[in-house]
Amino acid sequence: MNRIETITSQCGDSELAPFLRAAGRAALTGGSIIRQLYDKPHTIEMKGAINLVTEADLASETAIVASLNEDMPGLAIMAEESAGDAPEEPRGRTWIIDPLDGTTNFAHGFPFFAVSIALVDDALPQVGVVYCPMQDELFCACRGKGAWLNSGRISVTTTRFPVEALVATGFPYDIHARLDTVLQQLRSVLPKVRDIRRAGAAAVDLAYVACGRLDGFWEMDLKPWDTAAGWLLVEEAGGRVTDFAGNPYSAFLPEILASNSALHDRFVDMLT
Ligand code: IPD
Ligand code: CA
Ligand code: CA
Predict the structure, then answer these.
(1) Long-range Cβ contacts of 71-79 (<8 Å, 24+ apart)
(2) DSSP type of residue 247
(3) For the CA of 204, the nearest atom of ligand 1
(4) Among 167, 203, 223, 264, which is most buried by a count of CB atoms within 10 Å?
(5) What is the CATH number of domain 162-271?
């Protein structure tokens, strides 16, 4: 049995299983296109001062949308490269897609990036898939049923002390406008934890919190396609996701704090 079938059968949710299967297939399809383009010359365009888009973002998005439409015709789609800059909270069931999270890494040959696909219902994720093509790692979550990496269940760490925690963050594209806040947060968190990573793909950071490679992650100015799938992964793996102040999260909020749960209040203290 392949990993998508193993996960859908373990998930045991007959209503969500077809969506999980469709999201998994679409993520593998997009990821395989990205992997094939990885060591070829790239076409790079600028969406902002440091915000790139490559041929792989566009090709992955086209293939993912086609795959989802084939498996689940008629569902609404919000995909980064066609959604515009100010996406609004959708009503009902919608696919939220980041066809290549970590474009800067991809463009520089730094093999840390992913495809991220979530099925949301009234903006609440029901299914989440993050696929890292270079590592061939498929992270999946199904609301109420758990989270998986390839065919095995995953859970967050049990780390209780910040000094034992490895955490991640990211820097916003409008870094010049946010530099003071970003540096303030680093000044607050860095001396209290074991170390901080800035690997450059928010969806993967969240997947890594879910599977216990990281104890926490925070970032500001993210978009729903960066976090919708990873949010569900973290919660289904036993973690907690809020804004910086510990309030309930929405992928349409500009800031996210994800943790193994045990450390959450400590991170809220550090960030507020
Ligand atoms: C970006 C990555 C990065 C984060 C940025 C995101 P993109 O997504 O997740 O880690 O710091 O804020 O926009 O543009 O590569 O899809
Ligand atoms: Ca992204
Ligand atoms: Ca992207």
Answers:
(1) 71/18, 71/21, 71/22, 71/25, 71/26, 72/18, 72/19, 72/22, 75/119, 78/224, 78/225, 79/225
(2) P
(3) 9
(4) 203
(5) 3.40.190.80
Q: Tell me the pLDDT tens digit for each residue of 107-133.
A: 999 999 999 999 999 999 999 999 999
Domain 3-153 superfamily per CATH:
Fructose-1,6-Bisphosphatase, subunit A, domain 1 (3.30.540.10)
Task: Give the pLDDT confidence score for residue 153 in this predicted structure.
Answer: 98
Mention every residue, 6+ apart, whose C-beta is less than 8 A from residue 208: 168, 214, 217
pTM for the full model? 0.98
- Same fold? 3-153, 162-271: no
Taking CA atoms only, the protein residue closest to ligand 1 atom 2 is 201
For residue 57, give the ligand 1 atom closest to its CA. Answer: 16
Pocket of ligand 1 (CB under 6 A): 98, 101-104, 170-173, 200-202, 219, 222, 226
DSSP assignment of 143-167 equals: TTTEEEETTEE--------GGG-EE
39: alpha, beta or left? (left if phi > 0; alpha if psi -120 to 50): alpha
